[in-house]
Records
---
Amino acid sequence: EDNLDHSSSFINAVMMNDTSSSDSNLRQRNTLVTTISGGLVVLGLIVPLAWTAWFSLHPSVVHVVLVAGDANVNGFAQLGHLQQVLQDASATLADTNSNANATAEARETLGKYQHVWNSVLHNFTSPIASNVFVYHQRQRHAPWTMGTANVWDYGAQPGVTFGPEVELAHVLGEAFAPDPVVILKAGYDERSLETDWKSPSRIDTRTEPLGYAWVHTLQHVKTALQTIPSLLPRGHRKHHRVELAGVIWWHGYSDVFHGKWLDHYADNLLTLFGDLRKQFQRPHLPIVVAEAGAAGTDITRYAFEKKLRQEQKDACQREDEQQEEHNTNQHSAAPLPKFTQCVATSHLVGDTRSYAHLDKNFHYFGVSTVMLDISNALAGALVDLYFVQREQVEQESLGEERANYQAYMAQKEEGFTMYLLLTLCFLLAGASWVHYRRTGNWNPTALFIPSFMVEDDDDDPNDDADRDGLLRNRTVRFADEIDDDERRTATSDDGVDSEAETVEMTNLSSAKIANVNGNSQEETNGNRNGQAAAIVARV
């Protein structure tokens, strides 16, 4: 009897201990899975929202500026002259014997061209601005390429000359920072506006060909607008929307030697601008015209240049008149801003005849400082037109331009929403699979609510805690039956030997306990049943 009492108590204690330990382990496992799952879900929500917010605060726009015209767009400013000017200014500042006027002039020169001086100190290869790139065709029929703007690579004769891209990169890079800017050079030597830049509105019949320069430029600008995002360095590839921010037109000397061509220059220029805006669906595309200024302020030196300058001014003036008429007819409270500007350059040229040995007069004799000063004026005018226009667009709806922008933004927001939903579904599926592998339970509620927070149903035989309770109750009940059998055995008078009876009852009790644990085997897991069987075997 003492042995049986001790065995029954031992079994109960061990089973309760084992059940309590299993409950604790299961609870810790569920808590861990819930924490990991919840963390993944929260992370899946935060990352897309943060990504969306960042792009909303940082507009992803690549600004493309088309610089079109003739030889001066290609660039014939002499690098040697630029280097000499800057080195002389540096030497003057270092010379303690220099007079005050020379020192002030040298300081002004180095301050004005400091960004170029830094490039000179690095063999002309350092970038002018890290966010500005040049897209150009080095030779006819050669592929178009793109690289970071510098002084060395993009002139008509790389390593010898440079063009307007140098100062444009400096001004535009600061104005549009941190957005990337791409300067698309479309310069064609000795290509006239009358024939080579002939645009569709000047075609009388379908069989009449378009101008070579027009076709070539239009084709590559459209290609560039589609491919530039993939050509940008990795740090700028987050910018997915490309816009044609403006056009700089530097042309004229290819038409001056033909009287009729020069007479039609203003009409042809207006037609060209209209077709550009139509082709790129930008009715208010900013366009800056560079005044022909090779003669400088002494216009008597080149009589034909006076006529060319007047044609250029007439074209810009007629655009202004058309715009004023439009504003009057529309009766708008906020009239449309100016979209075309002719920039005077003659006062920037000065007397360049002393540099006649460097190059032709049409190339401004290759004087580097003249190229930089004119390019600076053109870039400043374009920036002013662009930002005035953008402010106006933000105040008023400008038809198709604003509608296209809103459609783009709606499409981007829809893409963000789909990305968010797909990410959330993926994370939920992954968390559910991890939970199933851990517990064998697909119940999604367990992903967010720990098991110890869920109210137990005492009548549920499938629950682990309830199953353990049933096992303990049955063990105690059969232990009581064993005690009753032992008492009956002690009081029996059937003449059977007491020791034999005790052995028989012990075997019977062991069999009952084994039967209890055997019946419970289907309701408990393998580890708990194995422990119970081992305890019974020891008893």
---
Amino acid sequence: DAIYGYAGFAALLGDRIFLIVPLFRLMVFVAYSSDVKSQLNLVRRILPHYLRVGSLIALLMVFFAWFGVVLFPNTPGGTTDEASEVDPLSEGDNYFPNFKEAMWSLLILITTANFPDVAMPAYNWARWSMVFFVVYLIFGMFFFMNLLLATVYNVYTDEQKKQDKQMEANRDENLKVAFELLAGDRGYVDTEALRGVFAELNQHQEVMYINDDRSAALLAALDCSTESQIFRAEFDKLCGLIQLKDPAQRDALDHFSEDDDSMRAGIARLVLSHQFEYVVDVIILLNAVIVAMQTRDELFGTTPGPSSADSTTTGLFGATPSETSSGVVWETAEMVLAFFYFMEMTLKMCALGGVGKYLRFRKNQFDAVVTISSLATVAVVYYPNAYNDPVLIRYVLVIRLVRVVRLLEAFEEFNIIIESFLNMIPAAMRLLKLLFVTMYLFALIGMYLYAGKINADPARGEFDKLQESDFYASLYMPLNFNDMWSAYVVLFSILVINNWQVITSGFVAVAGDEARLYFIAFYAIGTLVCVNLAVAFILDSFADEVDKVRTQHTEESIRRNKASRRRAATLIK
């Protein structure tokens, strides 16, 4: 019962009216989320185009199902497999026994989840029969399914263009109103008033925090006059300037003059230099080598040799640490690396001017998470307490190994791809919210319809039915709707399509053929709409983001070269 979550859900089965409460939570979330409402409106606009292509797919399935029932008739008594020979009519018995089952087989086939299994009985009987399935897949999967994606993509891009135009119009109108309110009858806005605007913007997380240095930089960029007066043309640039990225981490060196011999300036020149970054990269590579040496038995699937006979280590996920001399060496190396990463983080905080400025950069955020988790685990392991298990160090090894990803920054193209991906995440959150709402709603419906149906109780009739299904033979019993977590796992499995017909067979066994309608509905909405929207978003946004990032890198490179020439000219003078 504990495995399948049935016992914990038994109380809810008695009165399913309580499932309405989570539904109200969902309704409140949708009502207060502008992102979800905008995506639902987008789905509403897509549906008419979607249904037109969907009707063509349905007609294709009807035609081939009808043709398949005629081409592969079933025998009234079932298959007659004798003398180990495949019955020539078993295709009809297994996949085309009637029109309804033929439609179901072809629906699964268009997702390729049952190919080539669905064709093998007929193919064993006659090689030409494969033409039936190949022609169906050419029209259904290669043409109509891609046409469906193209339709979703076209509608998505059209809607994005409309939204962009509307947002630009709204921005211009709002800037006009804001300028009139701040300027009054003077026709200009003074810099003190803008500082008040910056202070108000700092109350909103959607805007990058504007500290004193950034405020001065923005005002200097806006103020084209000599009297600290911002006119309309200059004020209109405000939105674009506020959205500019922070400068690169190395640009913090510009705050120190060449003759500044203070301790902080010296630390900044050290830890923000390219040479220091190269040293850190070498340490990270050394860390990867150490992790590989410590986990070599697990990597090669071998067991420790005779030299480890006195060790109680049982592998990467063993219960106790090694007590051999080599184990002490590795643990010492781990502590030294943890201390090095901590000192790197501390020195960079000092150089950049505090924790807040250090954490403005994504690379530093990534390093800080790895470093702090490593130090916390080392402290738990080596400081005497009720939970003193050095095996946690082995887990931190894997976490620390993630820092190797940072080495990709050395390659310009990888750096552009990663930065473009990170820039897409805020916009992608809208689609993730839509997918969450879809899965949450279907999870509630699934729990209402099928909670407790998948169980291992021999006293109940469902278990006997399950034992005769592919669902049970595939060890899919934990895939059920007995609790919310299990429901999400089932729906995600359907979302990626793989073996979804096997999952469905378990619920058909205990709830009848009507269960197919539930999974077809989620496939149509979750996979064909939500996933295709995600693909359309990636196709539409990624290329633009790559171009933007590449342009930013070029501009930053030009700006740094100019700064280097200015510093060189100063030294010559």
---
Amino acid sequence: MSLSFCSLMTGCKFWRSSKLKDSAPKQVEGPAKDDSTMEQNGTAPKVDDLATVTASLPVRSSRGLPDKVYTAEQEAAAGKIGAAIRGSATRWQVKEDYHETRFRAEGSPFEPDELGFSKYAQKNASMPVVSDHLRFKVRDLTKQRVMQQLSQEVQSSWTSFEFMAAKILEKVATSGAKDLPPGPRKQMASVHLFQGEMTTKPKQAEAEGFLARRQDTYLLVKFQVVAVPAVADYDAGFNSLQASSQSFDCDGPEGFNGWFWVLHTAAPNIGESAQAEDFLAYSVEEESGTTSRPFRTESTNSAASTSSRCCWKDRPLRPSRRLNEDLYIGDIARLWRNALKAVQYLEVEDAIFFPFGMGAFLRHLNLNDDRYEDPARIRNLKRRIADELMNAIADICIPLSKSGKSKATTSKPCRLHLCLVCVNPESIDNHNCFVEAAAAKVQSCPELKKILQLRRNVDSLQLAHELGHNTQPLKVALLNGANRKLCGNHWFQSGARYAIDENLHRRSASLSRASLLVNFDTEPRPRKAAQLEETVRFFGGSVVDLTKDKKDKQKAADAKHVQIQDTAATRAPLEASAPQAKPKKSFCFCCSARDSLARE
């Protein structure tokens, strides 16, 4: 037995007690031999002698101070490490609470027909359960497809998606969009950026107890909507669709058949954590002399604090601030209306919406404003969001004449499919708010039943795929709650397994490649105020101002065309007597005006 093996096995108590004692060599009479004599004769030392060898303690880092006295920086680093370890376990508990648990402890979903609205257009018992293994496998396949479609190269296993994307974007920035493959180039030329109400340049918001957020990294400015053509590759269960096996792109013989619009727009984040990015802009500091505490800590008795929550989302010590609900609801209403205006502009027949901004962005609002620890108050806020959608549908999709009756329009009004999920108490609460809002609005607007269709536990991307294959190209639009810094956020990484933005991109290579070109980066970075507008124009896309009426623009172009024709008619007799000049290429100011209006 070798010396190294013996020295390793002596640390095992079982081996020492059972093996060493039984196999110990018998003592032989004779003179004792020292170690040097044993080594010369080629004999090994006794096992008993080896068992008495003691190992020294591991060498510890000398950066720490003696007597376990550490600096504030070291204590902060230790706190972050501990938070990461505890947060890992808490995330799994949150997953169980929000996505896998199928209990009805806080009520059951309302039936719309029982409240006076139409029955479900489609109703499923639950959403499909997808394992993380399959989810990330599809993500990796989508990354490979994106690289292959943009560069005609397959991503190797030892290069990251970020590295390959940076090479592609550097090439595009140098040579221009003309070097893109025909499919992505045609897709990006069809992108529409819809500008809403003009807002001032975002500033760095600061307040006591809140982290200063750099808002110059925002790609999507407030009230903007980006419409991108896309096609689905995987269904709700992350199973491959038939469209993903096609070898041609949108430049092929079928063009945009089966494709649909994806509308990227960003909701305000006022409750994702105790440091929600937009809460400061939608809140005011509580006035002194109120009955509430000036400085708040986490309430251990509140119902909200007993639910599973990541450890870094505890409420810090800071002055109380109160949410300005009217300001927040007003901006949410503008987002609903801008999305519907974009749908009208694109002449879409079927629009697919979901509870926009009512998930993670409201989940921990009570950490910023303790008034929303009351379940009734947070539900009232969600109901107001749902009411604004119903009001927007009634005002935009069902215009009224002066007599108050429904006004017939030349364009067919779109059908709006509202996909509502019922898999946990939070989603059931959102579902009930929209069902109640629809039932209340139909009392004053009966035409709402003809346009709004409620679908329970229906995947929005799969629905867009099915509707897109049963209608003309690009006649379906799907609303996406996008990240305002990066469309698709970090879909190519492992985070946000259930967020709609990331999962739409993981299941559609065409959508992911378009978002990569729109973002022109894989990480948030400081941007110019009009960066998105310049990027869309760079690829040949269109920029539309939603604040101006499309019909007024068309009338202005037609009037200009008539005026030019009259001027040409008066000059005709004078030009007849003049010598004939070289024939010029025909040019229509009307077409030029319409083209410029479409690309404003």
